[in-house]
Design a protein that fits this description.
Elements (H helix, E strand, L loop, with lengths): L1 H35 L6 E4 L3 H11 L5 E7 L5 H12 L8 E5 L8 H7 L2 H6 L12 H12 L4 E6 L6 E8 L4 E5 L14 E6 L2 H14 L4 H19 L8 E4 L4 H19 L2
Length: 278
């Protein structure tokens, strides 16, 4: 009798799960269809299994940490997307809901190389690049992401883009339901296997160039130094970053207004809460 009841429970539990998953899939498809009608839609492409995987994880893996990797070229809009998504999801910051790990914090300390060269211009003329995977401590970053998935607190380093100093005592990052990680190399082959969802932010190169030069000034790079680095940025993107477009589950439009990011994220979260009763 006990075995029968357990089997019966599992049957109805699975049936209920499938009903919830189906409802979520239909709701998300409806939102995506509405998004397509916009002059600048947020979602440019999703894989066939993307929506189903999201729905299944929401329903069947409630207690697991959800790791989302967001990549794209330098100045494509990764940080804007992450920050505005968070703002829409979390009206007030509460522990345990989300944690953000940024690839930029894991740049290796190159302050010695900069001092020895004397300037950014001189450093770049030696062939040094800030835009290849080996200048970022991806090994440490992966260790921290896995620790967060295993419900352990970590301390991420903090990198200064002007002085090139890396401070190992950066910010404490606590485990959360959703871990968002964004940056140039979060979908590097050494990291992509641990991601639950892989997102690529696409932005036209002419827009990237304009944004990049504005940001370069804030990081102490102007004139020839900026020109040399942007040339390197474009070349390394072609080799390392653009290929990850093909393996991403979802392609996001980096041209979308930040307010629209909040609007559509808010729609998705409200719909999920409505269906799941949370």
């Amino acid at each position: 009798m006990e075995t029968f009841e357990l089997t019966n429970y599992n049957f109805y539990s699975s049936r209920l799960d499938m009903e919830l998953i189906t409802s979520i899939v239909e709701a998300l498809k409806e939102i995506l269809e509405e998004d397509k009608k916009q002059e600048q839609p947020l979602f440019l492409k999703v894989t066939d299994n993307f929506i189903m995987d999201i729905a299944r994880k929401v329903v069947q893996e409630k207690k697991k940490t959800f790791l989302i990797g967001i990549t794209g070229e330098s100045a494509s809009g990764k940080t804007v997307f992450v920050d505005n998504t968070i703002e829409a999801v979390v009206r007030e910051k509460k522990e345990g809901i989300y944690t953000v790990i940024r690839c930029d914090d894991y740049y290796k300390d190159t302050s010695k190389e900069l001092k020895e060269a004397g300037s950014y211009d001189a450093l770049f003329k030696t062939g040094f690049s800030f835009d290849t995977p080996d200048v970022i401590n991806l090994k440490l970053m992966k260790e921290h992401l896995l620790a967060l998935k295993n419900m352990k607190t970590v301390v991420s380093p903090k990198y200064d883009f002007v002085t090139c100093v890396s401070d190992p005592n950066g910010e404490e990052k606590k485990p959360a339901k959703v871990v968002l990680t964004e940056g140039l190399y979060v979908l590097d082959e050494s990291l992509r296997d641990i991601m639950d969802v892989k997102v690529y932010v696409f932005t036209p190169i002419e827009v990237i160039k304009e944004r990049w030069y504005k940001r370069a000034v804030l990081r102490g790079k102007t004139g020839e130094a900026a020109d040399m680095q942007f040339k390197d940025v474009n070349e390394t993107a072609q080799k390392y970053i653009r290929p990850t477009y093909q393996i991403s589950d979802c392609i996001i439009n980096g041209m979308v207004d930040k307010d629209y990011i909040k609007v559509i994220t808010d729609k998705i979260m409200h719909k999920l809460a409505e269906i799941c009763g949370t």
